[in-house]
Amino acid sequence: MSRIVIAGNGGMPAGAAALIDAADCVVRFNDCRSAGAGGARTDIVAVCNTGRPGKAMLGSPAWRDSAPVCGAREIWCVRDPAKFAALRMPLSLTHPELDDFCDDYTEGFAAWARETGKAHRVIGAACQERLEAELAAHAPAPYVVPSSGLVVIAHLLSAPEHAGDEIVLAGFGHQGWEWHPFAAERAWVEARLDGHRLSRIEALLALSV
Predict the structure, then answer these.
(1) How are beta strands 44-47 and 198-200 bridged, if at all?
(2) In whole angstroms, what is the distance from residue 157 CA to residue 164 CA?
(3) Is 6 exposed, middle or buried (0-12, 13-18, 19+ CB in 10 A)?
(4) Average pLDDT, rounded, for the chain
(5) How far is CA 84 from CA 102, 186, 189, in A?
(6) Which residues in 104-122 are b (16+ Cβ under 10 Å) and which e?
(7) CA 201 → CA 81, 176, 181, 186, 196, distances in Å?
(8) Contact assessment for residue 128 and residue 119, using Cβ atoms and an 8 Å cutoff
(9) What is the pLDDT of residues 57-97, one digit of tens each?
(10) DSSP secondary structure string, 142-165?
(11) Bridge partners for 104 per DSSP
(12) Is 186 exposed, middle or buried (0-12, 13-18, 19+ CB in 10 A)?
């Protein structure tokens, strides 16, 4: 059994860094703001591969040359290109201000991963669609898409190759962009916390005192 830490970009509790760096695998997001207070180890960088974040990362030498990104062995794109292409027209009617939200940069990340010797994965639409169906049970406010963090959590919980792994969440405050359903996401996570398959790092730190 491996311990996988998913390090979100929220606040980190004291003592988290050492516990995160001791994990078998650490997943960080986008610009890896969790590095530092959340340790240094980075095995996977999960990126928002559409819209302004995707464009900004690919166009940024500082992002490509940052220690967490350079050290990662895998790049995961959390948004399925076909699903987001289909979302473009509905969004143009409901959220016209998000006119570049579905612009896709997956191939750019794939090419860059090949050039730098990193593995590349796209989390398929089925994961997000299953997640959206499960979120409906928590009566979410109107939203556009689930957060990248929740998509990665859902993927790791459902992927057969990780069936025996322990998944630890760190830096998840369940708040941020107004069009993610954070209240429902928190409820979804809380319903699955069992202290073994899925836990928060605060619980592990409490046990180590």
Answers:
(1) unpaired
(2) 10
(3) buried
(4) 96
(5) 5, 24, 24
(6) bbbebbbebbeeeebeeeb
(7) 32, 20, 22, 15, 12
(8) no
(9) 999 999 999 999 999 999 999 999 999 999 999 999 999 99
(10) S-SS--HHHHHHHHHHH-GGGTT-
(11) 50
(12) middle
The span from the CA of 102 to the CA of 50, in Å, is: 6
In 3D space, the residue among 27, 40, 39 whose CA is nearest the CA of residue 205 turns out to be 39
The average pLDDT across 7-35 equals 96
- Contact (Cβ atoms closer than 8 angstroms) between residue 74 and residue 46: no
Q: Quickly list DSSP for 131-145.
A: HHHHHGGG-PPS-SS
200 bridge partner residues? 169
Is the pTM value of this prediction over 0.85?
A: yes
Residue given tokens 């796209």 in the structure block: 122
Which of these, 4, 8, 14, 23, lies nearest to 175 by C-alpha position? 8
pLDDT at 53 over 80: yes
- Which residues are registered as beta bridge partners of 46? 29, 76
pLDDT digits (tens, 9 = 90+) for 152-206: 999 999 999 999 999 999 999 999 999 999 999 999 999 999 988 999 999 989 8
Unique residue bearing structure tokens 């409901």: 94
**Encoded tokens for 170:** 């760190």
* pLDDT score for 24: 98
